[in-house]
Every structure is written in structure tokens, then in C-alpha cells.
Amino acid sequence: MAIRVVCPADDFHVRQPDGAFADQAAAFARLGWGVSTLAFEGDRVFRPALMPGETVLYRGWMLDEVEYRAFVGAVEAGARVLTLPDTDSVCFVNRSELHRSVNSTSGTRFSPARSARVERFCKPFNRSPHEAYLAAHHLPRWVPLLADVTPETVCFTDLDDLPGALAALGWDGFSVKDFVKSLKTGAGSRITRPDQIGELLARMAHFRGQVEGGVCVRRVEDLGQASEVRFFVRAGRAFSADGSDVPDMVRDVAGRIAPPFFSVDIARRADGAQRVVEVGDGQVSDLVGWTPAQFMTVWADAEGWADGAG
Q1: Are the C-beta atoms of residues 113 and 34 closer than 8 Å to each other?
Q2: Which residues of 106-133 are buried (b: 16+ CB within 10 A; e: fewer)?
Q3: How confident is the model at residue 82 (pLDDT cuts 50, 70, 90)?
Q4: What domain of life does the native source organism fall in (predicted)?
């Protein structure tokens, strides 16, 4: 089966991939894949056009839910998305359960002591590409499944009294992000006082354009930044950048998370414990610590997987 990667188009040369993804596109081409570009902020035309029956992987900038649905719709006009889930049995956080649980001023708290609550979040996986995307892209979708191996987290969709809600937690520090990512510019995403949350969210909206989904606050742990390592998981198999053995924790995560392609970042806490720092959809995860050539090892046998997916 023919496989094609789609990358964002260069702003001025729409038949060429954006410079941030040009090396990856070239590596996929050397692997024998077709390569197309898509001008997301232009005419939204695939160049070259997708061929009927092709299987398509997106590698590019983060897309919100509406943008990703539109991308999938454009692909499925004649082709199909490679990351369609191939299982109905793995747990994920159902959208309706998420809404009812998170939509309160006190937030939804995910911690090891509440890990038994994960059972009520386990539903048959909705086999659609956009649900698979959100299952790794939105933090409240994956964090309840990893509550025992990731920092304690509380998620909010009602932002009216966040200072009061944060004060009630009694934490010494807060790492703040929306449902997708934290703020990397300026003073960053950490605060030590609840009354600092308003200013941080204003900066997030300014630099990122929106606060996507809601707000998640994570209890600050003493994690060594230098120890943080990114792994990719495809079809339940975990890969490391240098080909070395994958930690048992990463293999464990690969068995808990349903999306067919995602990234997972692991760091070591001061007491030596390994912790999951982040999970993200693999299509929009940066190659942190990876070269394009190393990334191709994830896809060496992808044709067989594509033939069996869906």
C-alpha cells in the first residue's frame, strides 16, 4: 500500500515543505514514501494531489480540534489517515465523561490516590482519527490513565475562580498549561502563588492566541530537566532515538494509551523515580533529541502496519 506524508507548505513556495519539516520530508522520501504539502493558511490544496487508496501521515504544526477534523476530512475525500486506531479494546477518556467530570469550579483531580477512578473512564475506543488525535493531544484524555506515574494534576473548564481553587489545593507550586501545552516564553508556566494565575493566562492567550480547551495545573515535582528523554510509540511498540533499550515505564505507557502513534517524555525525579512528563500526538510532536534519520527507524516497517490498519 502506498504511504504518503503531508507537511505544511512553505509560505512562499507552496510545493515545498516548510523549512521546519524539510529534512523530515526528505528522509521520508528516501524511505520510499510520497511527500505532499498543504497550505493550511492558503488554498488548502495537496501538492501533489493525494492518490486514491493512499494512506497518509501528517507531520507538522499542532492543529486544534477543528483544524484536525478539517485535515482528516480533506484526506478522506480520496485517501485515509494512517493513524486510524486499529483496536476497540484499549481504554481512553470518553468525551462525554470528560465534560461532566471536568466542568466544575473545583476541577477534576487526577492523583495516585484516585487511580481507581480510571475504570470509569475506560470506554471502547471510538475508532476515528480525530478522537485518536485528541486522546494524546489533550492532557485530560491521557492523564487519568497515568495518574500513578505522572505529577498530580487538576483540570478546569470553569475559569471564573481559579485563584480560589488553586489556593484550596494547598500546593507549594503550580505548573500551568492549557489542555495542550505550557507557555515557553517570558517567565514560563510555573507560578508559586494562586493570585499569579490571571497574569499567566493573559500571557498565554497573548503569545499562543488562545487557551485551548481549559486549564490544567500540575503539582511541581523536583524533576531533572537534563534527564528528560522523548520516546515515540507506534502501534504499541516503543522506540528510542539511539536504538537503546526502552525503559520499562515507557513500555507500560505504550500498553495503557490507545492512540496508534504518540510521543512520551520521561524524566527522573530527585529521589530516582521515573516520571511521565508529557504525552503528545506523534504527528505534531517535535523531534526533541532525535534526528530525522533516527525518526525513520519508527517507520521502517510501516507499510505492513498500514496494510493491516483500519
Answers
A1: no
A2: ebbbbbeeeeeebeebbeebbeebbbbb
A3: confident
A4: Bacteria
